[in-house]
Q: What sequence folds into this?
């Protein structure tokens, strides 16, 4: 018997980011792809849980997600800060839409509805180990609930 796979904060965040203007599922993940040439033209967003909470009486999730916008120009030592900043700003702009968002989650036994989203603070430069990578970080709050997948 295959175990049931619940919707996770990471899966919901990846799906929410992928539906924003100018972004796609290929540009979002939990880890940065090893081969920079596969994402250098578009940039890449990584997501990780940084905090948050859950309503104890029912499943209403409210994670604070660490979202990082990565950009690079392979073969140079010039980090493309504008591209990384634009990725972070695109996430921030996506929070200005106030209507709930239904998200189909691949690989999960549930879908989700994001009720509200907002950014805590401002996008900020973050520095990594790679001299030619530009990174902008922001803290994203997504209030979401799981919804059952319809069965045929």
A:
């Amino acid at each position: 018997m295959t175990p049931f796979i619940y919707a996770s904060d990471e899966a919901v965040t990846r799906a929410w980011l992928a539906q924003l203007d100018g972004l796609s599922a290929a540009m979002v993940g939990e880890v940065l792809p090893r081969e920079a040439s596969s994402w250098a033209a578009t940039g890449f967003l990584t997501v990780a849980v940084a905090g948050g909470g859950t309503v104890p009486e029912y499943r209403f999730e409210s994670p604070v997600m660490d979202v990082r916008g990565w950009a690079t120009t392979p073969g140079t030592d010039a980090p493309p800060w504008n591209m990384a900043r634009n990725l972070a700003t695109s996430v921030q702009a996506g929070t200005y839409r106030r209507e709930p968002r239904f998200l189909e989650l691949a690989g999960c036994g549930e879908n989700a509805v994001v009720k509200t989203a907002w950014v805590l603070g401002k996008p900020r430069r973050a520095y990594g180990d790679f001299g030619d990578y530009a990174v902008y970080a922001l803290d994203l709050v997504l209030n979401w609930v799981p919804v059952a997948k319809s069965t045929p």
